[in-house]
Predict the 3D structure of the following.
Amino acid sequence: MVIGILSSNDMEEEYSKILHSLFKNYKSSYDEDIVVFTTLNINLQKMEVAGTLISQDKLHTVQVPLPSIIFNFSLQRESSGIKVRKALEEMEGVTLINYINKFDQWMIMDMISSNDKVKSYLLPYFIYDKAKRDYRPEEEKKYITMPSRGASLSRVIYAEPDPDPESDIVRGSQYFKKGHITDYIDASLCQRKWLFIEIPDIVLHHNHPLVCRIYMQKSNYNRWDFLKRILYPDPNMKVPDNINLKHAENAAKDLINEINNFLPSIGHCFIDMIFSQEGKAYFLHLGGLDQYFFKVLLRDDISKKFYKNIISLSRYYRAT
Amino acid sequence: MWISMEVAPGNKEVIVLPQEMDININHEGKVIFGKNSCNAFIKRSSELDFIGGDNYDNPMKIIISSKLVNQLMIQPEVVYQIKFEGRKIVIGPVIGLLLGPHDYMYSPEHMKKYSDRFGIYKEIGGLVYAFSERTIDWKNSRIYGLYYNWKNKKWEYGTFPIPAAIYRRDFHSRKETVKKLMEATGGKMFNSWRFGKFYLYKHIKKNKNLLEYLPETEVTEDYRQVKRFIDKVGNVILKPIYLSRGRGICIITKREDGYKITDYRSRQVDELFIENSEKLKDFFIANKDLFDNYLIQRYLELAKVDGAPFDIRVVMQKNVEEEWQCSGIECRVASKKSLITNISRGGYALTLDEALKRSFDVAKEEREKMKEAIYYLCINLCKSLDRLNHHFAEFGIDIALDVEGKPWIIEANVFPSFKGFKNMDYDTYLGIRYTPMLYAAHLAGFKTIHR
């Protein structure tokens, strides 16, 4: 039995090296081997993959039968890659964990709003379609706006009313006067649909919203396990006294448990939370594991947990 | 009877009905919603008016406790039908649309394409929701999905009971799940199985009444067999067993001076001429995929409209009387110079009347006979497929007419596309969209105001 890791087409070598350097220390003789591959090297007709075996002393290039458990850490941008991934999703006898790693936040917010237990983590949200120009933010309110798809923090825009009506410039991570933010979005090349989140006074850091990114992974018995959290825009910033990050972690766990009912393929993710001045955590984003997780965060103490969760979740899926 | 609900907070399962309502249940009864049920206290109230209930727009109000709502996973804002059967109170219908495994795609936005099926919603009412096989929680008998909220015309996420009837809309569900859903609904999931082209041919071959309408067909094995088939029938069409919409097709016509190959396997149509059998053999050696799940079939000389061949898509559906009916017929005319008729390949759609008129120079009575022959051939095929151990209620049957006007069975699709109808005849298109919803409501045990 081999466990599969599906990486983005340009990342196989890099992920193989990172995961090999970490996982080889933890592998017991009972553990299955792990092979990293891309959609380019899957032969669906022969049910084979060519990839890099990472769970032995040295990295090996191998050709193995298509693993029955595959962890998807990839982003598929080309239609050919999406086609292969969809075939894996449909395949009888194959469990693909995380069909996708880039989510439609509008859809996720709709899921959250359907559940009384978690909808309190949601702020009022509105969708703006550039093609229809069908939403106009109110001039007196504060907003976070961002593209509906994905979870890139660099695309999150904080906007608040202009305190000086004579000036075009106001405080915020981006500067907009009155409703002109939609003009900016219209002019941007990024995505057609944008979300507007109506926010209370939120915690800012150098005029950027303070975001806590909480990484989680499923472990044995399909239960969600906390992996790591990191603060943005500055990981080393001092957390205001009234913010309890443990509460944010619990909120993220509640949220993923609910989202997971509608998206059962998810097995690893992060959730971004923002904070009101009173310290209450609110949902911002859901994403798959990002490159920062693999390239930086995984290098510390969580790598063993991450590896063990992969092994135990694989065993759980095989047994069920 | 049609009802609307008011939810009253309460920690007991209670349903309150108008005092004057004449039913034989006192104090306690079993309330059924989809495949969920529980015992509930039945109370009567003189404050509830025993009026209305005769149609969707005029429902009778009842009161239901929040505990019962949560236990049965009722969406209380929906207008339902209610039935009283002995000590049972059945609220419904609860209908499921089974989608594929791609859970991340099924957003309210994605589901909009299903909304035009709800033009007859006021004839059925109740809870209609879509779900992926992956979002079924078997342990707790609940399903996570999206239901159509008629009042605000939006699809909304929610948690629902296992439905009483299921309209299967995708064919990538796991066999085990399909089996469990069939068991859970007592066989009331239709389109329960999708067969391939080759299965259909094997099935028809066993049926004497249908066999004469089946072009000679074999599964490709090797060059020797293919060559023998070509020598026997002349012109052949090679079709992949598992592809549709004209994908992967290759046509070989035998001529005095060799073979003409028209190859539709790539985006661009390739035409080549081969002088002799040796070169034909080389062609097959170079194209081994033609022996990988391919059928070889006699290529019929099709009737033509303005010089272009056409075939006929007949939509057969089950109605609320559980009888097969023809819900629509369209003729698909090949684009100029093309030998295949798929609209996706640049062809266009015509009504059957128009196509027959333009391709056969015969009296109207003759054309009516042709139409009748097509209809009865499709009815017989559906009835024959009904004898299989599966639940079918919708087929898109492809029929070809040869130059003599004889119909031939080309294919029966369990998951047909109706795109041609949408542009050609919108009323027929809507009828095709509505019929399975009405059938599902009937399967769920509720009457529909059948038009």
Summary: Chain B touches chain A at residues 100-104, 107-109, 134-135, 137, 144-145, 156-159, 172, 174-175 (CB under 8 Å).
